[in-house]
């Protein structure tokens, strides 16, 4: 029933106005799935390779489509993804492009679910998946590679860890986003938004800490549950490998100073989550920081692990973190993303399923997070391509309970 009979690929727009790859997968019995690849701006050096969409589509049509159509069942995700790897023939999807691969992988999963008449999270997670829902981490102030002339730290995140439901958490993050706007206006700071819909004011990091801390407390008082504070430092973007220092607008920090700075921030702001506090090549520095504060906050590897099980194994050996960011397009298939989550869970690491800064209306990551019982999802706070995922989470929770 789920034998793939057609795969169509096209260029569509992403949220930055750039082209990206969309895939349609059709099965023998009329099952249909459609998915689109997201795209990063602060990409990790070790990510699978995203090719220009036109090239990725041409290469996938030549190499991948013939291995799928009439050959593979969309209901068997491991076979679909093995065919994509075989068609590509490299270890980083540099032939067909991770953008073509991930779009086809996710579209096939949706086609499989369609034939089975099951929601995607149920198809992917199976009947024995747990009944927890991920806590959404919401980017409320941002800079780095996502906005010009804004904060050095890439993302200041609201983390509504005490929310009684997904919907309460989603609305709390939106309320923090709103409160930040009011506080910025009170201070006379004009600002627009960055790529992910977070406010991108021209202020320094210390002012951003003050404002987000106050906004979180105000909303916490309103909603009556605990809202934590998190960061994506995107340390690899700040790191200068020649001087071996982290370059902030107002000063440089060497690696020891960076570790001390982050550890102080964890204590001062009760941070519940810190992503990529250090450079993507520095497992040892990650391990030192995790040793210092890993008992009271999540130290999450994004550019460090790039959803790659080999890099995660290395991190586990070093004690480098206690959490991993999961971005399917960093590795190219849902199977690889699942394997990374499974390995992480077995080793006591929390998984955070994540959007990219360049997104589409695709909602696959909401289903992936629920299917795998991931404790967190990071998918923005406001903006159509972000609310697509957040609203899907609310619908999934509504349907499943
Ligand atoms: C979502 C992120 O940004 P990008 O997609 O630009 O890598 C991130 O760094 O976590
Ligand atoms: Mg990141």
UniProtKB/TrEMBL annotation:
Q: Where do the annotations place substrate binding?
A: 146, 155, 275, 302, 354-357, 378
| Top-rank lineage group of the source organism | Archaea
Could you list the residue ranges forming a coiled coil in this record? none
Binding note for cofactor: Mg(2+) is required for catalysis and for stabilizing the dimer.
- Gene3D superfamilies according to UniProt: Enolase-like C-terminal domain, Enolase-like, N-terminal domain
* Enolase C-terminal TIM barrel domain ranges (all copies): 130-400
| GO cellular component terms given for this protein | cell surface; extracellular region; phosphopyruvate hydratase complex
Subcellular localization is given as: Cytoplasm; Secreted; Cell surface
An example GO BP is: glycolytic process
- Cofactor list: Mg(2+)
EC annotation from Swiss-Prot or TrEMBL? 4.2.1.11
Keywords assigned: Cytoplasm, Glycolysis, Lyase, Magnesium, Metal-binding, Secreted
List ligand-binding residues for (2R)-2-phosphoglycerate: 154, 327, 356-357, 378
Describe the family membership recorded for this protein in Swiss-Prot or TrEMBL: Belongs to the enolase family.
Q: What does this protein do?
A: Catalyzes the reversible conversion of 2-phosphoglycerate (2-PG) into phosphoenolpyruvate (PEP). It is essential for the degradation of carbohydrates via glycolysis.
- Protein name, as recorded: Enolase
């Amino acid at each position: 029933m789920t034998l793939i009979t057609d795969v169509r690929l096209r260029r569509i727009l992403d949220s930055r106005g750039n082209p990206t790859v969309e895939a349609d997968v059709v099965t023998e019995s009329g099952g249909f799935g459609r998915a689109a690849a997201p795209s990063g701006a602060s990409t990790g050096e070790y990510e699978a390779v995203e090719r220009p969409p036109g090239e990725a589509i041409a290469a996938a049509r030549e190499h991948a489509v013939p291995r799928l159509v009439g050959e593979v069942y969309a209901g068997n995700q491991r076979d679909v993804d093995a065919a994509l790897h075989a068609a590509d023939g490299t270890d980083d999807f540099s032939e067909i492009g991770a953008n073509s691969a991930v779009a086809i992988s996710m579209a096939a999963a949706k086609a499989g679910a369609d034939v089975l008449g099951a929601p995607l999270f149920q198809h992917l997670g199976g009947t024995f998946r747990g009944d927890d829902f991920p806590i959404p981490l919401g980017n409320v102030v941002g800079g780095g590679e996502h906005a010009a002339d804004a904060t050095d730290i890439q993302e200041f995140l609201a983390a509504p860890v005490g929310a009684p439901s997904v919907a309460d958490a989603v609305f709390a993050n939106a309320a923090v986003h709103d409160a930040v706007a009011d506080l910025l206006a009170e201070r006379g700071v004009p600002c627009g938004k960055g790529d992910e819909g977070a406010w991108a004011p021209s202020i320094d990091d210390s002012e951003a800490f003050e404002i987000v801390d106050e906004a979180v407390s105000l909303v916490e008082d309103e909603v009556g549950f605990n809202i934590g504070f998190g960061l994506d430092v995107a340390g690899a973007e700040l790191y200068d490998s020649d001087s071996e220092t982290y370059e902030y607008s107002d000063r440089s920090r060497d690696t020891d100073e960076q570790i001390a700075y982050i550890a102080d921030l964890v204590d001062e702001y009760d941070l519940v989550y810190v992503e990529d506090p250090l450079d993507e090549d520095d497992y040892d520095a990650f391990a030192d920081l995790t040793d210092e504060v890993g008992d009271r906050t999540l130290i999450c590897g994004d550019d460090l692990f790039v959803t790659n099980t080999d890099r995660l194994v290395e991190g586990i050996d070093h004690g480098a973190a206690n959490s991993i960011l999961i971005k399917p397009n960093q590795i190219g298939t849902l199977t690889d993303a699942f394997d990374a989550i499974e390995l992480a869970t077995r080793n006591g690491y929390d998984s955070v399923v994540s959007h990219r800064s360049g997104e589409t209306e695709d909602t696959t990551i909401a289903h992936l997070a629920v299917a795998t019982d991931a404790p967190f999802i990071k998918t923005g706070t406001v903006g159509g391509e972000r609310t697509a995922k957040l609203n899907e989470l609310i619908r999934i929770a509504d349907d499943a309970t």
